[in-house]
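A note from the maintainers: we've had questions about how concatenated examples are separated. There is no special marker in the raw files; a new sequence line simply starts the next protein. For clarity in this README we add a label.
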Amino acid sequence: MRQRLLAVIALASLLLGGCSVGDAPSRQAIPSPTPAVSTLQKLAAVAPPPPLALPSGTVSASSQQVTYSRGGRTLRTVIWTPDGMSKAPAVLFSHGLNGSPEAFAPLLRTWAAAGFVVIAPAYPNTTRGTAKLDVYDVLNQPADASYVLGQVLSGPLGKRIDTGRIAAAGHSAGAITTVGLFTTGRDPRLRAGIIMAGSGLGVGTAFSGTPAALFFIHGNADPLVSYASGKAAYDAVPWSKAMLTIEGGNHGDPYLTQGSASYQTVTSSTLAFLRLELYGDQAARQTLEPTSDLDSHL
């Protein structure tokens, strides 16, 4: 109990600085305690699914907004869908503190245009414009995310999603939310995850359930969520995994600033990962071969 309380306090200290681009944090993140990592040879392998035909080139993408309610928690959700596809893999995306689905629209629309349904809830107490920003509420967001996914799958859009090919992704506090979907709030429907500028603060690093491939992306000059805290979470993953280090990358530009080289790197690498893990596209593996910036065990 004391360890969890300390993790929550650390989470609040981290996130009170905000996740918006340009915000200056009061302190850096403190890495969560992590168990000893077994040798890489003992990582649980995650086999890509049977190959699924990729869309022929870039397709157009449409968006719609749906609002769900979980125990009085309003979850406005933006959903991008690839046009002309009867069924596609899906990505559940979580924004950061004081963020929104719309802030990530360029990246999420790119994913949709590559053949992925993207489901992006706006969390009630951490989204931009909320009446009362509550950093502790991040701990409730893994359950929110799972609920939204369930509502989408059981609704009209559900028939357009391949339920065996679902991933989760998130940035900053949303990346912590995503880690939570593989730890304290393990959602068994997820077979892969993307953690951008995140850590295990508050949700821990006790990864559990069926092995899922995880892709971490972190700038080594991130002043808000320390690179060390992201690396600690990555080291604790016992499954197939990769970590892309953005040299000199800060907390926002690699994920939000379209004109930056790091944004292009994030876009191409996340698409390769999603194609490999959700479409079974072995050609995408070439983009994810180990380099000086990419530690890859996929």
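[label: protein 2]
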Amino acid sequence: MPAGVTLERIDTTESLQLGVQTIAAGMPWPDAGRDYILDMVLKHGFVAHPSVRYYLARLNGQPVATSILYLASGVAGLYCVATVPSARGRGIGRAISHLPLLDARDMGYRVAILQATEKGERVYRRLGFEEVCRIHFWQR
């Protein structure tokens, strides 16, 4: 674990808000998308669901990285892994990816999937993932 880093499972509306803001700071999300999700969080609050778990990493108390674990059909999906630019290159992305995978393993999951950007590819290879296909996104 990098020095000064703590990992937590998100389980309150307040920590979910921090998680959404951290995802938006770490990924190229449009402000409108971030604001929409934050409005939904404020409207409905944190809603626990057995198939979804949210994670937050803090560096010296400040939120710097997130991940989400989706569990379905015997497969653990790792999504929304994001680290704010100022905290990159310190092993925090690896840590916030590793914790959900350990949780999934402890629950009996043996298969995990994710979609990676080129920036995250090295991190996921070190965690044991292998590329099986490439997905292209198109927009107009």
